[in-house]
Amino acid sequence: VDRAFPRSARGALKIARTLVALATLLCFVASGAHEAYAALAGMETVITVLFLLLYLLRLDARMRCLFWPLA
């Protein structure tokens, strides 16, 4: 586990993006919006959490099959 990542600028940005995506999901669910909007917000939240975990566990260094700056 990379303990310095959450304190870095990139880590703080990914954490903030995760929180915004979660807040968006909660707002769509609470407002009773169409299910497609809630599903898209949920997918955004899950994808952002997965990328956060990927960088937090340093899996980007092990996975050479993707060009990470584009991800």
Automatic annotation (TrEMBL):
The chain crosses the membrane at residues 12-31, 37-57. It is found in: Membrane. One of its GO terms (cellular component) is membrane. PROSITE patterns: MARVEL. The keyword ATP-binding does not apply. It comes from the Eukaryota. It is a multi-pass membrane protein. Residues 5-71 form the MARVEL domain. Keywords: Membrane, Transmembrane, Transmembrane helix. This is CKLF factor. It comes from Promerops cafer. The lineage of its organism: Eukaryota, Metazoa, Chordata, Craniata, Vertebrata.
